[in-house]
């Protein structure tokens, strides 16, 4: 039993925690705290990475935002848990959300705005949803890449654990003991997921858009675990634009299709055609 549980936990963690971005973890984001939002883009953009990732995840998106005239700011969060490894986004999600909230307040104060736009990947998208529930007046819009909206089955592992009244609590305890409370929080049916989904997920006055990939094996079932099926929310698959795309969960923030989609979601009035990379060019886009 102990061996089986250890293997299950190891597999769960390998699915729950994506690989970091290609740039070195912890690389400072190119934040410009003297940036003043323009009339064209009056809401600064706050970027929230996923589990075990860092601000380096946004190294491809940030220059594109700057070129469009946005003030953009990225933050590392969730590394102040008891783990000696100090890995980002591993602490309890409610605790990380408070850190994100403090960062948003700092951005608001520096730029003189009342509300920000948020781009969140995976756990970062889940935190964005939670933060907007708690502080809706401080969020203008959210563009979310594979957020863990309804919790993940970890590609079936959570469903397997749920079959036993003993195994699921042991799995959750193992997540905490291995210094990843966030992983337990993101499981389908967790207390945090139930609270996030109690009543409407969205808040009036906040614009939401969600992008998923059919190739996702981390936030599962793909699409179903992420989409917000509520009025006014835009839910898309990468493959709606590029059917042959093989976009993976871990590299979503660097995916060229996702980057174009984010830019359109932040400024739908000036949306531009999304062009497929050569390797995914089978739909004529």
Task: Report what the structure shows.
The protein is of the alpha/beta class and 285 residues long. It is 32% helix and 11% strand. The chain contains 9 helices and 6 strands. Helix 1 packs across helix 6 and helix 3 packs across helix 4. The longest helix is centred in the middle third of the chain and has 19 residues. The N terminus is likely disordered.
In summary, what is this structure?
This protein has helices spanning 2-16, 61-67, 93-111, 123-134, 157-162, 167-177, 181-185, 191-196, 256-266, and strands at residues 45-48, 72-75, 116-121, 139-145, 207-212, 234-237. The protein is α/β, with parallel strands linked by helices.
Identify the notable features of this structure and list them briefly.
single chain; alpha/beta; 6 strands; six-stranded parallel sheet
List the topology elements.
Elements: H1 2-16, E1 45-48, H2 61-67, E2 72-75, H3 93-111, E3 116-121, H4 123-134, E4 139-145, H5 157-162, H6 167-177, H7 181-185, H8 191-196, E5 207-212, E6 234-237, H9 256-266
Parallel strand pairs: 1-2, 1-3, 3-4, 4-5, 5-6
Helix pairs in contact: 1-6, 3-4
Q: What share of residues is helical?
A: 25-40%
Structural class based on helices, strands and sheet pairing: alpha/beta
The largest sheet has its strands arranged as: 2-1-3-4-5-6
Rg, alpha carbons: 18 Å
């Amino acid at each position: 039993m102990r061996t089986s549980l250890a293997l299950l936990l190891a597999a769960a963690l390998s699915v729950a925690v994506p690989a970091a971005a290609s740039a070195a973890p912890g690389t400072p984001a190119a934040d410009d705290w003297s940036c003043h939002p323009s009339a064209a883009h009056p809401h600064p953009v706050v970027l929230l990475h996923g589990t075990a990732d860092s601000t380096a995840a946004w190294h491809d998106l940030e220059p594109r935002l700057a070129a469009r005239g946005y003030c953009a700011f990225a933050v590392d969060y969730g590394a102040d848990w008891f783990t000696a490894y100090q890995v980002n986004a591993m602490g309890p999600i409610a605790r990380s959300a408070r850190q994100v909230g403090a960062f948003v307040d700092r951005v608001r104060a520096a730029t003189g705005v009342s509300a920000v736009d948020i781009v969140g990947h995976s756990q970062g998208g889940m935190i964005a949803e939670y933060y907007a529930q708690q502080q809706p007046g401080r969020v203008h819009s959210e563009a979310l890449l594979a957020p863990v909206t309804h919790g993940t089955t970890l590609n079936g592992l959570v469903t397997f654990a749920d079959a036993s009244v003993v195994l699921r609590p042991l799995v959750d305890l193992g997540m905490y003991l291995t210094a990843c409370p966030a992983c337990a929080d993101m499981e389908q049916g967790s207390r945090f997921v139930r609270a996030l989904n109690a009543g409407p997920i969205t808040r009036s006055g906040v614009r939401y858009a969600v992008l998923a990939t059919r190739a996702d094996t981390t936030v599962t079932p793909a699409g179903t675990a992420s989409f917000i099926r509520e009025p006014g929310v835009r839910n898309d698959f990468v493959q709606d634009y590029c059917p042959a795309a093989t976009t993976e969960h871990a590299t979503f923030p660097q995916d060229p299709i996702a980057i174009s989609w984010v830019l359109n979601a932040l400024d739908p009035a000036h949306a531009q055609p999304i062009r497929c990379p050569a390797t995914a060019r089978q739909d004529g886009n």
